[in-house]
Amino acid sequence: MAKILITGSTDGLGLMAAELLADAGHAVTLHARNQRRADAASERLPAADHVVVGDLASIDGMRQVAREANSIGRFDAVIHNAGVGYREPRRIQTPDGLSHVFAINVLAPYLLTALITPPNRLVYLSSGMHRAGQPALDDLQWTKRRWDGAQAYSDSKLFDVVLAFAVARRWPGVLSNALDPGWVPTKMGGPGAPDDLSLAAVTQVWLAVSDDPAATVTGNYFYHEQPRDVHPAARSVEVQGALLDGCAQLTGVVLPNP
Ligand SMILES: NC(=O)c1ccc[n+]([C@@H]2O[C@H](COP(=O)([O-])OP(=O)(O)OC[C@H]3O[C@@H](n4cnc5c(N)ncnc54)[C@H](OP(=O)(O)O)[C@@H]3O)[C@@H](O)[C@H]2O)c1
After folding, report:
1. What's the gap in Å between 14 CA and the centre of ligand 1?
2. How much is the pTM?
3. Which one of 17, 63, 67, 183 has the lowest number of neighbouring Cβ atoms within 10 Å?
4. Mutation choice for ligand 1 from 5, 9, 13, 63, CB with most ligand atoms inside 8 A
5. Which of these, 133, 110, 46, lies nearest to 252 by C-alpha position?
6. Measuring from atom 37 of ligand 1, which residue has the nearest CA?
7. pLDDT digits (tens, 9 = 90+) for 30-41
């Protein structure tokens, strides 16, 4: 039995992964943005061990999630799943003055990675849209460019792969991978999404707990349990370093050494 934390597990792929893991006998900790959503998640999955609470749109909320997670003890795996989509019609600013998409999709997985006691495995939800991402390290907050929600989302999902690969390189004792779940009909994906929903939570579960040699690798990107090509920037040591530096500046927290 493994102990697994899944961010953004009140709905969609996070909740589906939690259900698969709980059904297989693993100890699952859910995460919700507030107590109301936490209560709803507990009702949906009474088998869950714990629910941690915190709104990932704010740095205080991210810190709260890390604190609550660490109070439960060390996890075997953390699945960084929480995210917001590509349909924001304008640049939404968080209480910290950051781009909402960047804060939730990139800064939160960075800060949680840095603050939560390192598990054996880290899994980051990216997207096929990451291939259209631009590693615009001089405009992470979208203050210089005209807002484009799809581009901001693609950039954020590219940075999720960059983060997964940066952690894989810096923490050789931790398996750190990213994946594309497919475009599926969740709240984010929308009702017309064409891919198979029944497969969309399988790869993150496999990366989190399977002993399959194909799953116990690090610094890889998957789609339906198969390695897939990534945007070349994801493997750039310069881009990785610049993203980690940018996130450290924004949060005041440097990714610790292993
Ligand atoms: N669906 C797709 O087609 C697709 C394709 C490629 C990649 N992905 C990736 O897969 C992951 C999950 O997506 P999904 O389709 O399952 O999305 P979803 O159905 O919209 O669920 C997103 C989850 O994240 C939580 N969340 C969002 N903002 C939050 C915040 N500020 N604080 C705390 N929790 C927050 C949501 O909480 P609430 O329930 O309270 O809103 C929900 O539990 C995302 O990282 C996404 O980028 C999805």
Report:
1. 7
2. 0.99
3. 67
4. 13
5. 110
6. 8
7. 999 999 999 999
